[in-house]
Amino acid sequence: MDLRLTEQEERFRSEFSRWLDENLPIGWGSPELRSRATMEDEVAFARSWQRTLHDGGWAGISWPKEYGGRGAPLVEQVLFHEEYARRRAPNLITLGVGVPIVGPTLMTHGTAPQKARFLPRILTGEDLWCQGFSEPGSGSDLASLRTRGDVSGDDVIVTGQKIWTSYAVFADWCILLARTDANAPKHGGISYLLVDMKSPGITIRPLREMTGRSWFNEVFFDAVRVPRENVVGALNQGWQITMMTLGHERSVSAPHTRLLVELEDVIRMAKRRSPSGRIEDPSLRQRLASHWVDAECLRCSAYRTVTRTMKSGRPGPEGSILKLFWSELDQRVKETAIQLQGPQGLLAEDSPRAADEGRWQYELLWSRAATIYAGTSEVQRNIVALRILGLPRG
After folding, report:
1. Which residues lie across from 168 on neighbouring strands?
2. pTM (2 decimals)?
3. Which of 315, 261, 248, 312 is nearest to 89 (CA)?
4. Residue range 13-36, pLDDT digits in tens
5. What is the DSSP track for 317-340?
6. What CA–CA distance (Å, rounded) separates 23 from 38?
């Protein structure tokens, strides 16, 4: 891959940079503006910011123009994420899986009415989506899911439980997997459904995380009626669609972008906490240098994956390498950030004496989930071994 930008790519980066200058809230990115808002406030802000992106022509830049996107090639998508992270723009994760996962899945497998109904509202932030895949006992082994989908006339009646469902309490819609043929093989008989989260029979129980927040939820479905028109693809043929969804989940953005920015912030903190303004401890210098080398390797690996995807036209198993490498490096960087603070690092996030407004306390706790969500590290290693290295099953 040629790492030099073309004139068109430079114009793209400059155009987006100027737009951020004109639209980011004043002072955005400074520690003083770190939000202590409620989750409801954060979701409301995320919807508003998504609308701002949409009105500026920057929402869903990877989406084809016919669906409201920019049709940006993969290189420009990487540039978008790099510039977005460099400017510390609002984290889009609060809006859930709509733009990066649900949209691309519907574009490929959805019906014309499904596309017309859902895609525009995803881009504007009007509809927030959650992902109903994992179940108690069926997380890493997703194909063992037990949620039932009993076909009855024009409906699929869903009964079961999902867990670790991010943003479910705020979500308008859910992509959900249900077993619609109990007699089919393990990876067969599964259907991919679009479920209105306001449907009768849905109970949502927020799960309090060790961060103190409750983004995760467990969701119970008690004879919830889902119209057959909300089945994506053919009935009982949802597994292949699921694999596409998971492929996007593991490669929805350039994974190195925010991590490199956070590492820069950690290095600044190390200098700031030194009387000389320099990092004097050689072991600390070596650790930070090791993080930086790893982050640069991650960046180059992301570029290589982009090149391969451009050639093949679809995300491949290489996304598992990026997810594995990024998630474990993210944890190491956050651990270093807390260690730098010494005894002050033991303070709670909301303590008035916490460094950087408690940012790193929260980030350390949240990073523990990085090696679990979107497929555990163990699952990623198995994918790398089997699908990339071609090793035999043990």
Report:
1. none
2. 0.86
3. 261
4. 999 999 999 999 876 766 555 555
5. THHHHHHHHHHHHHHHHHHHHHHH
6. 23
- CA 229 vs. chain centroid, Å, equals 27
DSSP state string for 46-75: HHHHHHHHHHTT-TTTTS-GGGTS----HH
Residue 145, exposed/middle/buried by CB under 10 A (0-12, 13-18, 19+)?
Answer: buried
Q: Give the Cα separation of 158 and 179 in Å (integer).
A: 9
- For the annotated catalytic residues, the residue numbers are 249
- Tell me which amino acid residue 67 is: Y
| pLDDT tens readout for residues 52-100 | 999 999 999 989 999 999 999 888 988 999 999 988 888 877 777 999 8
- Answer yes or no: are the C-beta atoms of 298 and 321 closer than 8 Å: no
What is the C-alpha to C-alpha distance for residues 145 and 262, in angstroms, rounded to an integer? 37
d(C-alpha 235, C-alpha 228), whole Å: 9
Place of tokens 């290295």: 389
Radius of gyration over every alpha carbon of the chain, rounded to an integer in angstroms: 22
Contact 190, 200 (CB under 8 A): no
Q: What tokens appear for 62 in the block?
A: 């990877």
The strand pair at 129-132 and 173-179 is best described as: parallel
